[in-house]
Specification:
CATH architecture: Alpha-Beta Barrel
Strand order of the largest sheet: 1-2-3-4-5-6-7-8
Helix content: 40-55%
Length: 332
């Protein structure tokens, strides 16, 4: 059942009609629950609010799989503007980028040129750039660009996805690189990736513990309180300093737990997306962990005293529209 749910949301994330509709209507229905606005000023206002609570942030200008040079150049300019404002306003924040937004599907050379400009400016300001890992089709290209950039800059890292069989080998090769550890949110073949939640979770724990015992900073990205509690117990048992790792969660998800971990003295970083292209991002978050539906329903559909809210919310609207559309296509 979990695989069926995951496949369902991944299918929705790739639906062009729903994506365009979501871009048009999302912020009228409550998309701000999980996307911190559409422009640089709005996202940085959200980050400042997190900073006041003792929480750091990584900001993602949403967009991917771009095939037009003009759109990739526009995305690059937005990211450069973001870097300049983070520096000028002294905000506790770094940047996450997707290479397919910056031209990887156009040419690797074009993408690398854009990334060199981004990482170069960030290096001048002492700002870290994290290169998000996308689907397996782009995996080798992503590692190649990371490797190239690392020859010239020390302020760039990437992501390890625990659902990949090769995750541990690649993590070991990147032992001196700052990494974010995630489970993985794309539909991948059983030839390259674990297919069950149990196997993915087990590998995630294994990789996290191994990195925590190393010498390089690691971001542990999960909303699963059971995994977090196991890693906290492991860190205490092994006397691992809290400065060697941080926990990460997505903006708008489990906010009470985010604050609790920060209050307990753990480094905490919230992944804060912004921009119009939010639909595919959100559907993959539901695919990655369907339990996120329960978190959002509880937060957005019900009041503190468990009364049903009357105002429209994006999760209900998005899923209802998605189901209606798929049913319509099936009938045709």
């Amino acid at each position: 059942m979990s695989n069926l749910t995951k496949n369902f949301f991944i299918a929705l994330s790739n639906n062009e009609f729903l994506n365009k509709s979501a871009q048009k209507w999302g912020f009228r229905l409550g998309a701000e629950q999980f996307v911190a606005g559409v422009d640089v000023d709005s996202v940085l206002a959200s980050v400042k609010n997190l900073n006041e609570k003792g929480i750091s942030a990584t900001v993602d200008h949403l967009g991917e799989f771009i095939t037009e040079r003009s759109k990739s150049i526009s995305a690059k300019k937005n990211i450069l503007e973001l870097i300049n404002q983070i520096y000028e306003e002294k905000i506790d924040c770094h940047i996450s980028v997707k290479l397919t937004q910056l031209g990887l599907d156009i040419t690797e050379e074009f993408c690398l040129e854009n990334m060199q400009e981004i990482v170069g400016l960030a290096h001048e300001y002492g700002i870290f750039i994290n290169i998000d890992m996308e689907d397996y089709l782009h995996y080798e290209q992503t590692l190649h660009i990371v490797d190239h950039l690392r020859k010239h800059y020390d302020n760039v890292g990437t992501v390890i996805q625990s659902y990949l069989y090769r995750a541990e080998d690649d993590m070991d090769k990147l032992s001196d690189v700052r990494l974010r550890l995630v489970k993985g949110a794309y539909k991948e073949s059983e030839d390259v990736a674990y297919q069950t939640k149990q196997a993915i979770d087990q590998n995630f724990l294994k990789l996290a513990k191994k990195r925590m015992q190393g010498d390089t900073f690691t971001s542990i990205a999960t909303h699963d309180h059971n995994i977090i509690n196991q890693l906290i117990a492991f860190a205490e048992r092994e006397q691992i300093d809290k400065s060697k790792f941080e926990f990460q969660m997505l903006y708008g998800f489990r906010t009470d737990m985010q604050q609790s971990l920060a209050n307990d003295g753990y480094l905490f970083c919230t992944y804060v997306p912004f921009g119009h292209d939010w639909y595919g991002y959100f559907m993959r978050r539901l695919a990655e962990r369907p339990q996120n539906i329960n978190l959002i329903i509880k937060d957005k559909f019900y009041t503190a005293d468990n009364r049903l809210k009357k105002t429209p919310v994006i999760i209900g609207s998005a899923i209802a529209a998605s189901l209606a559309y798929l049913l319509f296509r099936r009938k045709r």
